[in-house]
Amino acid sequence: MQIRAITLLLSSLSKEKVEHYEKKLKEVKNAWTKRISFPESDLSVSRLIEMVPQDREILVSLCGLREKDSRLNDLVDTLRSGDNVFCNVLVRTIEGAKEVARLLTKLEPEEATRFAVLINDDFLNTPYFPASTSNVVVDSFALALLYVKDYSKGEASKAFQTANQYGYEVSKILKARFLGIDISLSPWMEESVGELIEMRSGKIFSLGNTWAVGEVNREIFTEAWKSRITPIGFSETMLPVAEDNVLRQRVLEGSLTLSNLFQLTFSCASGIDMVGVREDRELFENIIKDSIAIQFVKRRPYAIRIIPVRGEESIKTEKFGIIPSIKVV
Which helix (H) or strand (E) covers residue 173, if one does? Predict the structure, then answer.
């Protein structure tokens, strides 16, 4: 098990507070990434950017915006202010879907990896970026884990308990409330969730995959309650295509299509995630509209990361390698 992220969730904003936690985070050891999630505010984007830590290794979820926020016009420039800056937009309506689809057509691929569409009743306390926006009354923090191998060995409970103890130790350093763990089973390249699904139900995509994802969700929640930890955020199986070698390969070979991926989203936290989609404003709008309908039925937080593809079959990125363009069928 690895601590994938430790994310500070701020109750209020000030440059002094961000600087304070920037120093405190440097004292924390054994975390893959360190992050700060800002709360919803009415500050201008330029003021928010001024608060970004000097240490560019610290990732920042700078702004969670609602779909009618006038600052949406500044979002592209916000994402271009630094490669450690992340943003999300909370969408609930068809009008919001149209506005965000327009915005997506303006993003370069790398910028799109740091932008999420969140479909939910409100902003979400999660360590996972870009969908995180702090919504707490006191300064808090949360953990995300990389534990695919532990889960495969039947050791998820042990991983949860170890992470929980780590959280309480870190709280002494940060002097912030330990909110809990987003127990989402999320992949990173060779630690593949796609491989787990195929071991249970056949090659992605085939009938039975959705059931397999649902079973994984049930099992990780059972282990969480046994371990007496507090699950927060998404706490479901995640299928980010460009972060999972098996999922990436299935998209490249064409067995996993956009329609297939949509079906899987009934069981996973964010199925249309980190996958290239040919640039088409109407298509982006329809993806978001269909996602709104699925979230209404599912009644769980739902996030989307679409990477616009312009005239290519795939995109090569420095951080994620190849991001394949999915078949739109």
Answer: helix 156-174
